[in-house]
Specification:
Blueprint: H1 23-29, H2 32-37, H3 49-58, E1 66-72, E2 75-81, H4 82-98, E3 106-110, H5 115-126, E4 130-134, H6 140-149, E5 154-158, H7 159-166, E6 178-182, E7 199-201, H8 202-208, E8 223-229, E9 237-242, H9 245-255, E10 264-267, H10 274-286, E11 290-294, H11 300-309, E12 314-317, H12 319-328, H13 330-334, E13 343-347, H14 353-362, E14 368-371, E15 381-382, E16 396-397, E17 403-408, E18 418-420, E19 428-433, E20 442-443, H15 447-451, E21 454-455, E22 458-467, E23 473-478, E24 483-485, E25 488-490, H16 492-500, E26 505-515, E27 519-528, H17 536-550, E28 558-561, H18 575-583
Parallel strand pairs: 1-11, 3-4, 3-5, 5-6, 6-7, 10-11, 10-12, 12-13, 13-14, 27-28
Antiparallel strand pairs: 1-2, 8-9, 9-20, 14-15, 15-16, 17-18, 17-19, 19-22, 21-22, 22-23, 24-25, 26-27
The protein binds adenosine monophosphate.
């Protein structure tokens, strides 16, 4: 269907005066020092994410307000007020202390979206323990790799996830001292008796611990969160964030999500990924709103029912979910009414223009795309409530964020040399001027890789984009081979390595293949060792092997056999060529192809 290039907002789209009402003036006046001053802080210049998110409210008029409301299909809702969340997180911090775990230690969480996960993350942050969330749909290998690389001291997980995904590879995680087990539903009252060495029953420990507040001593530049993200080559990279990131979480919750105190908010992202952590867990609490947490997986009818019955006012979701809702048809949405809903936003992958318009038809409101990544720690570019949308565009840089488009002067320079492209409409790499508080402060154990991300004071995002004459940014693609499937970033190398462990596989090359719902699906090409025959049984065996090791979220959905994979003369698999051939696109420059023309 032909749609106009601009979606003009009407009075019906704006149900509350927005925080960002005059873009140019507010961008001009914005200073991060002022944004920092909007938080309470700690005596002597300290800062702590969990204190701002929980304790600050628990000590004031919001003490009795519901902070988190957990819902599940077959269980009654569980609610935690700000006051109760403060007590539970104090208690969890005391449990860690009693185990000799203190500031600087690394805690991993692997659990569904449950009270235990939220309490563990916030309690650990209070104590200055560095937190890494893991996605519960990961298989044993991605879990073991991340805990090993991140030198995890403590893991909080459920008894079933532990038995299925952690115990089999525990020998590969030598630093892991304690595994704190919780029940599947994350209720901190259900005990999980265990006599396995190195595992403890968290509920029993919580019951025995005091809920005396622990001393909070973190400084703005102390490490807080370690998020693993994927690159084109090598193992996943641990992007390190500090407590000062809370300033960005708060400011962007205000400008990009337009959170107001009375909001009932729902972020559908899993806390195993950065969106679920920054905007599922931290930002809504910073604004003292009530946040819905659904333990179930996607279901169109359930989601509409929740939006309606939970009276959600601000909804933050993702393109894959929106495409699945679109597939289910507008009629399903129309069986519900969403009078409370006033703002809908999306992140993680390109949002099709059609989806922006669909929002208005099905939900009564357009969908607002925004852009950021693990390394930026918070939303950088956004469509916000007050402004017209150019469907297909990611929006404009938020106050305090300076973005530009750059071109590289040399292909592989170290440090990279870039030039800012001033005229609008030209495609190049999206870059951000450093200075926003949630910028990652390093890749764990990889200073060289970190330095390669910066050209002077510009952070290079690895995304290709263009800016139009009105200052809107348009996503063009990734500059590397990383795959975005259902909003999850997947490193081809991790998938290839798991496939190579299969005795029949000689080599593997993995690409993202465009998919109408997932954005991209993971497709693998493999060549076989002598003595193995390419047939359906082997293909199914490879799919099963990958799924078992990597988990459903990361494993390839399609596998094809090739006699040999295209490689460069230096031996690197040319994923770009595999992709071009798969999609029937021009093969581009093949001069470095092994056996190709010079
Ligand atoms: P992650 O670090 O997993 O959050 O993934 C970040 C990457 O997701 C970005 O570098 C982009 O490639 C992609 N991405 C995030 N938001 C958007 C968006 N609104 N439009 C297009 N791509 C996006």
């Amino acid at each position: 269907m032909d749609r106009p290039a601009i979606l003009h907002k009407t009075a019906a789209d704006l149900r509350l005066p927005p925080h960002l009402a005059d873009y140019a003036a507010q961008c001009r006046a914005f200073r991060w020092e002022d944004a920092r001053a909007a938080l309470q802080g700690l005596p002597g210049g300290g800062l702590n994410i969990a204190f701002e998110a929980v304790d600050r409210h628990a000590a004031g008029p919001l003490r009795e307000r519901i902070a988190l409301r957990f819902v599940a299909r077959d269980a009654p809702p569980v609610e935690l007020s700000y006051g109760e969340l403060a007590r539970q997180t104090h208690r969890f911090a005391q449990v860690l202390r009693s185990l000799g775990v203190g500031p600087g230690a690394h805690l991993f969480v692997l659990a569904g979206r449950t009270p235990a996960l939220h309490v563990a993350v916030l309690g650990a942050l209070k104590l200055g323990v560095v937190v890494t969330p893991l996605f519960s749909a990961f298989g044993p290998e991605p879990i073991a790799t991340r805990i090993r690389l991140g030198r995890g001291d403590v893991l909080v997980t459920t008894d079933t996830l532990y038995a299925r995904k952690v115990r089999p590879l525990r020998a590969q995680m030598p630093t892991l001292r304690h595994v704190l087990l919780v029940a599947e539903d994350g209720a901190l009252a259900s005990t999980i008796p265990t006599d396995e060495p190195g595992t403890l029953d968290l509920a029993a420990r919580m019951a025995a611990a005091s809920d005396e507040p622990v001393a909070i001593t973190t400084r703005p530049d102390d490490p807080a969160l370690l998020h693993f993200t994927s690159g084109t080559t090598g193992t996943p990279k641990g992007a390190l964030h500090v407590h000062d990131a809370v300033v960005t979480h708060h400011a962007t919750g205000r400008y990009a999500l337009d959170l107001h105190p009375e909001d009932r908010y729902w972020c559908t992202a899993d806390p195993g990924w950065v969106t679920g952590m920054s905007y599922g867990l931290i930002a809504p609490l910073l604004h003292g709103v009530t946040s819905l947490v659904d333990r179930e997986e996607f279901d169109a009818e359930r989601w509409y029912t929740l939006l309606e019955s939970e009276r959600i006012s601000v909804w933050y979701t993702a393109p894959t979910a929106i495409r699945m809702l679109m597939k289910a048809g507008v009629a399903l949405a129309r069986r519900h009414a969403f009078p409370a809903l006033r703002f809908v936003a999306s992140v993680g992958e390109p949002l099709n223009p059609e989806a922006v318009w669909w929002g208005r038809e099905a939900l009564g409101l357009p969908i607002h795309d925004n852009w950021w990544q693990t390394e930026t720690g918070g939303i950088m570019i956004a469509n916000t409530p007050a402004f017209d949308i150019k469907p297909g565009s990611m929006g404009r840089p938020l106050p305090g964020v300076e973005a530009c488009i750059v071109e590289h002067l040399e292909a592989e320079g170290a440090p990279p040399q870039v030039r800012v492209i001033e005229p609008p409409g030209v495609e190049g790499e999206l870059a951000l001027r450093r200075g926003w508080p949630s910028m990652f402060r390093g890749y764990l154990d990889n200073e060289v890789r970190y330095r390669k991300c910066f050209a002077g004071d510009l952070y290079l995002t690895g995304d290709l984009a263009r800016r139009d004459a009105d200052g809107y940014y348009w996503f063009v693609g990734r500059a590397d081979d990383v795959i975005k499937s259902a909003g999850h970033l997947i490193g081809p190398f991790e998938v290839e390595s798991a496939l190579m462990e299969h005795p029949a596989v000689a080599e593997a090359g993995v690409i993202g293949k465009p998919d109408p719902v997932l954005g991209e699906l993971v497709k693998a090409f493999v060549s076989l060792r002598a003595g193995h025959e390419a047939n359906e049984a082997l293909r199914l065996s490879l799919l099963a092997h990958a799924r078992l090791r990597l988990g459903a979220a990361v494993a390839p959905k399609e596998i094809a056999f090739l006699p040999a994979l295209p490689r460069t003369r230096s031996g690197k698999i040319m994923r770009r060529l595999l992709k071009a051939r798969e999609l029937g696109l021009p093969e581009g420059d093949t001069s470095t192809l092994e056996g190709g023309s010079p």
